[in-house]
Amino acid sequence: MDGPLIVGVDGSDSSLRALDWAVDEAQRRKAALRVVHASRREWYEGHQPSFDVDRRSVEQYAEHITAQAAERARLRAPRATITTQVVPQDPAAALIEASREASVLVVGSRGRGTFAGLLLGSVSLPVAAHAETPVIVVRGNDKNVDGGFGQITLGVGPPERAAAVAEFALREADLRGCAVLALRAWRCPAHELPDYPNTDFEAHVVHTENELTEGLRDARKTHPTVTVHATAQEGRARDALVESSALSDLLVVGARRRSSALGLQLGPVGHAALHHSACPVAVVPHT
Questions:
Q1: Looking at residue 115, which CATH number applies to its domain?
Q2: Is the entire prediction scored with pTM above 0.85?
Q3: Do 217 and 239 belong to one domain?
C-alpha cells in the first residue's frame, strides 16, 4: 500500500518515542507522515463524567499535542511531508479506522493513562490486534529502538501464511541495509517427556528447514541482496523470538486475519512478542 505512515500520539513519553521512530521510518520509506491524536478520552480521563466539560479546551489541548508533535517531527526531518489530524473518538477505534488508508501504523507501547502494572498499553494492544495494516509497537531498549544491532528478527510461520510477513521483514531490511534472522521453531515430545518413544530428531529439523525455505522463497526473490540467516530452532517460538529480540532492531511476527468482526488474532506468539520484546515489534496481517 502506498498510503501515509500514520503515528498515534497522546503527549506521553512513549508516544513521542514512537513519533521519533515513525519519522525515521517514513524517511526510509519516502512516505508522507500523518500524526494522529484521538481526543475523546481527554474529556473524561481524570474527571467524573459531567455535562460541564469544556470541550473547546479539550479541542485546544488536542491541537496543542499534535502541533508540538508535528514540530518535533519537522525538526527531526525538515524535508518530510507531515500532516496532523485530531479525531474526536476513542484512541484505539480511531487508529484502527485510520489503518484502512495507512501503509504502516506506528504506536507507542504505553499511553498516558496506562496502569503502572500493565506491560502493554490499553490502546496499543487492540490496535495491534485489529488494524488492517502492519502495526509497529515501539518498545524496548534504547539501542534496539535506535537501530544499533543491524538485525531484524522474523518469526516464520507455516509456509501458507508466511509470504506477507516475510516480505515485510525483508523489505524493511532492504531499506535499512541490515540482515534478517529468520526463525522457525520446532518441538519434539521426546525432549519433554522422558518416557516418550525415541523420535527421529533429524526429521524434525529437515521438515522445519524445508518450511523455512518455502516460507522465505518469494521474499528472497524480491529482495535478493538481503542477507538472511534461516534457523530451525528447537523450543517454543515465543521464547526463541523474545530471546532474539535482545539483539535486534525490529521483531516481525504475523497475525491471522479473519473475516469476522474480531479482526486479527494475535495468538500466544504475538502476545508474547508485544509484551516482552526488547525491541520494536511489527505485527503483520496474513490470511
A1: 3.40.50.620
A2: yes
A3: yes
